[in-house]
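Progress report, Aim 2. The chain analyzed during this reporting quarter is listed below.
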Amino acid sequence: MKKVCEGAGCDCCAQNAVTHEPKPCTCCHENTTTPAISENTAEGHECHSSCCSDEDGDDGGCDDEDSCACCSGDEPEEPIPFWRIGAGILAYAAALILPVFIELNIFVSLALFAAAWLLIGLDVVKATLSDFKRGKFFTENSLMTIATLGAFAIQEYPEAVAIMLFYQVGEQLQGFAVRRSRKNIKSLMDIRPDSAAVVTASGVMTVPAETVKKGDYVRVLPGERLPLDGKIVEGTSSLNTSALTGESLPRDVSAGDAVLSGSINLSGVLTIEVTKVFAESTISKILELTQNAQAKKAPTEKLITKLAAVYTPIVTGTAFLLAVIPPLFISGAQWSDWVYRGLLFLVASCPCALVISIPLGIFGGIGAASRGGTLVKGGQYLEALADVDTIAFDKTGTLTEGSFTVSAYCAAVENVDLPTLSAHAEYYSKHPLGQSITAAYKEGVDPNRIQSFKEVAGQGVSVLLDGKKVLAGSVNWLKDNGIQATNTSSVAVHFACDGEYVGHIELTDQIRPQSKGALTALKALGVKRLSMLTGDNRLPAAKVAKDLGIDDVHAELLPAHKLEVIEKLKLSKVSKGIVMFVGDGINDAPVLAGADIGVAMGGIGSDAAIDAADVVLMTDNPEGIVRAIQTARFTKRVVWQNIVFAMGIKLLVLVLGAFGVATMWEAVFADVGVALLALLNAMRIMRK
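Predicted structure tokens for the chain:
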């Protein structure tokens, strides 16, 4: 049965709670963000204070107590004791069957029905009294309590008990469905090892993973999960990364390769140097994102919660008027008949089908996306994915492989060793092009020859090499420094030495094999506009855009300029659709944050990606965007099916009840039956 927060030791929070105040609510709740110890609890009690804090981060109390499981009791908790349900059913059966064989005194019959009602509905009555203490008069519990007491008042004893019985059975089934769904999500994300085998001078010691420090060495045997992020220093193996990326194909690794926590070692013994502590590891980030996502409601979820808060008092007031007005003004109207209709209104009006099934649907959508290798940071972003109609892509590392190779050294003068000069000039560069140029130089770079180094993001570098000023970068970078250079038809880095242009290096970056199919699929899904944003020069960018069927291309952009393009796309969109930006999460943080929805692709190892993006694709496959949009649209479709179905059935029963056509049994179906059907429909998302 549902639990409410009643103070010290309340079951909702934990038995070891010392004090508990509903505002700010600091009780425990499975659907919350990262746990933190609360001052309102005893030592060792993990408390999720954000369950009732404002979405902007403050702890100003419950913004929405109707949906806060801790404060309202909307969280299905442990089932009521089976013996009470059984005893209640036996008492109910006795009250119905015994009069067939023997004549029962009216008081005996009433006592049997009352005993059955109390055994079955004791928790509902307790929750109603607790709701009343907190000034909450229009809750699911109070509707059922008032409706059944009213049925007793007009001597409809069998229906009074039946309402409570079916309501309780429905509640237990709903609780089972919700707990099972949450268990599925928790088991899906239960991939963080708690211990690590640390290699020390005295041997291998098993210690808690959170105590391992950066730079320590850990040993991972075949069949074990990697406890922390790191770099392999010894051993070769294959890793199952499906829990992180959704990819079933094992990844072969050897010494020097970076590996992520949560992966399963399939074959050889690995020794790994830890590069990130436990709290900063990939799997910890994934768990944190998933937990945080559940606290961020989708717009539909918020709308239903607000409507339920208004809808229930209105229907309750209508039920009261329906029970009172006709007998006062219509000749021959029976009080018992109209009170019955009013009570029917109370039962049928309960909005639990929406309040429970819609959050479960959103929750299921986030879980389904996670299984496909997509982390969605909240319900609002899942809903935004469903409405995307404009997508802007970064080029390098997103639509293309992002791993450049030198294809040609094009020297403009004879007395300069372009391979040596370029490798030294780009030695300290963080840009993929510069790193590729240095990697292509096999004779080894001498850092002592570099006296100074300066890098201007998106433009180039200025280096003092052997006492000479060397410039490397784009044509515009050289022009800004008074040196003439000409664009090429391929990706190129241009070089100048002491004010003289000395040549350029051409590099190639292959289009990802999945990019063409992904963009074609996005068009088929109804995405109206595909754009490409890149810092590369116009000619090679235009060629990639043409090969992929992209609608428009914006080239030679600095990071700040990309944000300007996104703002223009948002202003120029032809509908109310969402503008999405997809980048690799390395240099695109402002753009990821500035778009309606930012997607970081292949960025699970990047702190910048996880912080700035709304959605994180854990692989480098752009087809993940297609799957994410499909999941979001399926989730939205199921959620609206539940809304239309539930409201339609309820309104039909309410109208029929007002005219005396529907009975209390139809009202029970409109409440419990519709809620169960909506839950079953929502659970389809979990299998998506």
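The chain is about 45% helix and 15% strand. Residues 1-76 have pLDDT under 50 and may be disordered. These observations will guide the mutagenesis work planned for the next reporting period.
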